[in-house]
Write a structure and sequence with these properties.
865 residues; mainly beta; 10-stranded mixed beta sheet; 8-stranded parallel β-barrel; 56 strands; disordered N terminus; Cellulosome protein; GH; Galactose-bd-like_sf
Amino acid sequence: MSNKQRDRGGAVAADTETLTIDLGTDTGAFHGGASGTLYGLYGDGVPSRNVVEGMHVRTVSTKAQDGTQHPGADALDILPSFVDCGGRDVYLYMTDIYRGFPYQWPGATGEERLADYRARVEKQVRQVLTTGPLKSHIVYVPFNEPEGNMFGTGEWSYDRTSWHSDPRHYFAAWKDLHHLIKGLDPHARIAGPNTCVLYDEVRGFLEFAKAHDVLPDVVTWHELSTPAAIRTNVAKYRDMERELGIGPLPVNINEYAHNYHLSVPGQMIQWISAIEESKIDADMAYWNIDGNLNDSAVEANKGNGQWWLFHTYGRMTGRTVQVRAPHPNVQYTLQGVATLDRDKRQARALFGGSGGAADLVFANVPAEIFGGTVHARLHEIPWTGQVGASAQPLRIKDLELPVDEGRVVLPLVDLDAMSAYEVILSPGGDRVLAPPSIGWRRSYHAEHATCTGEGHARNGPEGSPSDVDRFATSGTYHVGGLRTGSDLAVAFSVEVPQDGTYDLSVLANSHNLHELVREQGPTNVFLRVDGADPQELRLPLGYKPVVWGHTDTRVELTAGTRTLTLSARDPDLGATKGDATIDRIDLVLRDAHVTAPALYEAAYAGLGAGARVTYEHGGARGPGAVLLPPGGTATFWVHAAADGEALVTVDHIGPGEGLLTVNGVEVGGLDRDGIPLFLAGGINKLTVTGTSEHLVLDRLRVGPGTGRLETTVYPAEEGTVTGEAKVTGAHTFATGGKAVEGIGRGPDNALTLTVTAARTGRHAVTVRYSNGEQPPATHYNPDPVCRHADLSVNGAPAHRILFPTTFHFNNFWDLAVPVTLNEGTNTLTFTADERPDFDGDTTNAHQQRSAYAPVIDQVAVTPLA
């Protein structure tokens, strides 16, 4: 399924592979099950509800309420907000009530240990029963990897005998707990056996469970293997069901993928394609920190490339169709998933995993849906690192293609193996074609840069197909040595096409627990262009040594060959403190492509309440339009680089009227001249609701603000502090070098700020904060803690806000919170205290819940609209 290409000189180039999307072969309703997460939610707000809903998270596996396995992620704490965000099921890992892995259940004998656990299971079920209708979203998981834990051969097992060789105790315990749970909650759903692979012995488990009427309601196991094993083992399990006369039962592979895969769109699409093809649910594995959707969410409200991949996957609708890959079911090759929505008259293909050239072929394109010409939109979802935020997918091509004997061929070049790609087909015919959202761009790997001075280290190789436990890295290697006391300089030779302003992004890392990083936090380095125009950059922190984020700036370059140098010393600006590694730099020309307003097509939006896509309105400036009846909705997920004002224009055709809602707040009717709105940094949910008989919606345009929303900044040190709360100069990266710490351990230790509003209404309160709290962990998960603040406005009952880790108390992030302020003077009071357990009487004994608010640097107040 490939063909040879010749370059302009006639030489034979590399094979061009073919990925075929057969729109004539239906493979079932779109399921969307790959977007599950293990320990991906810390609590309401971490990650934000926008991030959770926009990623279309279907299932969450998480710890027992008040469990001590990890900080946060308590099942009943996350349950209400997760369901509000459209989540389906919370898989309650009942074993994670204990510390350690293997689980450290108390008792001198197996019988004593099981008795203790049985009592804890009963308590958990009784807690779930207090949640009312929400309890229908709970799935109980009585055992996790029993072969390596409670019924294995280790010190913390029942009797050091593996259930593989003697399953009597495990089977008896399963039967007992199954009866206990169902006796307390007859409508309960129970999942198992939750083994680390689909062992052959699972057949014996199913035979026993069938014979004793204790079959699981959902069958679970883990696939820390390959996407190919997903397809193979799901088929193997279905064969077991048929042979045993049970099911078919729902399946959840509630741990999948490795460090090397997670965060990388081109890797994860290969898992997604296998999971979607198998029509099962699956939860990404938890290797690192909880509350970031398994390396999808950045800070509280931002997404990286993986987030946008799952967002794009979750927007698929209709029926899946057959995808014929050039190397079927072979990892690290071109794979994909595709759908056909006959009502929308759209086909979507999501693919990736291989670099270079490829032909994307749509076969059996139905003429009654698309006609003789199709409109094709190509997006790229690039890798931006584990903790590196990403803008919306890049618009690479917009074109019209003929349908030739039922086929549409889209030739692709310069594919990046770490990126995923989306193509959307819709009916063509003289559509207005949008330019690319980005023009000239290049990446330069640090391993190819010229290094001078002392301390240079070429580190790696990092993650690879043969070493999936390590993290993904561009080009496999990276450069270290920019550290305290070093004089290292890393020089990149770049060739740029024209004079102009360029966006520069440095993909880098400083491990937050490294000895040299502990003192200052973010590592500072120095940038020069051809030896001039010095800038100081602060490089991002990460939770482990090879975890990539990015620091962004702009540089003025003249056409030709230029040298960009990152140094540990600068004669004008000073010296580096800390320790940093560099993976690569990215350059993007800031031309008309980049500076134009971002476009969000109505035809691609999420539609509800009778809204439908139409291709009959000639005034549409995109691939189609949306007809909104009264109450019909179109929802857009909009990226903002930072908290602040944006000018949002809702383009619509004709005289229709509608209402705009931003992040759950109604901001008024539509204005063809644009509406100044406060957008939170990261992911924003904008919904247009029809209020007239017909509203024909074309697209959304989001551009820079015009200064109509006034922001007022209030330094924390100018507020009133009480009790042990105090102003300190210990945080050098705080604005002006001062911040307030010690807020917490009760309402007596508080910060109060007096702020002013020009009029009564909803405002954004943006808190600049730091949080470096990180208690000792029991194993490979770093386990940082989210601090919280109880914010009271004008003395009203306080609202609790979660603040994710910033990895160091000298590393400051922004978190925007919507509040209602009165015209004139208002008071904002920040307090905190440790939250008790579910019963209200006990507290966590392992420093897993903080009694303190974060360090607060400043608060900015902006009207929402």
